[in-house]
Amino acid sequence: MGHRRWTELPLAGWESRTSESDRVSDGGWGLGLWLPIDFHMVEDFEDDSNPIVNTDYRFGVAPKFQYALGAKRRLGLRLLFGHESSHLGDEFSMAGKREFPNTFERINVSWEFLDVGLLDEDFNCLVWSVRLGITVSCDSTYYSVDSRSATESAVGPVTESSNWLDPYVGFDLEWEDPMGNWGVYLSGEARWRSVYDYHKADPAVGENRRLSVNVVSGLRKTGKGNALGRASFFVRFYCGVNPHGQFRNQRDYMQFRIGLRRIR
Fold first, then answer.
1. How far apart are CA 180 and CA 162, in angstroms?
2. Which tens digits make up the pLDDT trace of 53-78?
């Protein structure tokens, strides 16, 4: 499984003062509109046909506002209006029903949400930022329960979810030149995630929650990147609720990764 990460495509922007840098000038403010996109797929390479196990995707629109408190400090606000869906692969689902006729479940996760985030950034020798936010569901349930959807369960009736928000806090640290032409960064987030419960005895009772922690650290080449971006070596650790679609009923999911990614 891969790490979920938003890619944001800029659509439009405006600043109250022009600046040669890519940051809002001292005492100024800026507005922008972005198109966030996220796609995550799990594929089974051991099976001869390499079936798709699960596909998650998210997209939306995100207006942002930033104000410069000084030459080296910014305050930001982001509103993200988005949609998330998750679907198990057909081959995987057919095999699951055949091998586990009494326990197999296929849950149609699909919901709209609003994510509100506040950001405080400081651009000195040690670049740091702190963010607070909350993700609010705009639907009555995170997943479909009616017979017209793809949701099906051999365990019993699927009950609607009751929770409707997940708060989070995060930080980013970056040392730009501690190793010559290479910088070091550390990023983390703690989210109070809901644990999906598809068969609650009382549908009105809220789901349990689990603190989910994500930490990423790595190296990246400093200076201006080209159109393809810059290479970044990283390590990542995640512990908490499985963040992928209908598997969010797994509360003790853990992942450790070492890899290479492209950053701007």
1. 51
2. 888 999 999 999 998 887 788 899 99
Q: Exposure pattern of 195-210 as b/e (b: 16+ CB <10 Å)? A: bbbbebeeeeeebebb
Q: Encode 216-239: b = buried (16+ Cβ within 10 Å), e = exposed.
A: bebebebeeeeeeebebebebebe
What's residue 224's pLDDT? 59
Residue linked to tokens 């051999």: 154
180 by Cβ neighbours in 10 Å (0-12 / 13-18 / 19+) ranks as exposed
**Element spanning 99, H or E:** helix 90-99
CA dist., res. 37 & res. 82, Å (int): 9
Residue 3: the pLDDT is 40
* pLDDT on residue 263: 66
pTM score, whole prediction: 0.84
For 172, the enclosing helix (H) or strand (E) is strand 165-179
Only one residue has tokens 């003062």, namely 17
